[in-house]
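Assess this:
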Amino acid sequence: NKKAFVELLFWKSPAAVYEMTKGYSSLQEGEGTTRSRVPPWTPQEEQELRELYWKYKELEGGDIIAAILAHLPTPGRTRRQVVKQLVRM
């Protein structure tokens, strides 16, 4: 492809660079950018998060998010994910 050099002029993700060097469609299903996606919140997790928020929202001088993370039944959620979900809800 004589015009492949144009692709080099723009920023690329690591997955796109891998495809450029190894050949297009070389990434298997579940690799690259799709691997880093955050699992969606289930309705049960949302309900538990809502209940924990109402339980700890009156916490004086404490970190509400830290208290929620300590009592969240689903391990693996980050502080950022919890805050983002609370804002979204």
About this structure: Residues 43-56 form the longest helix (14 residues). DSSP finds four helices and no strands in the chain.
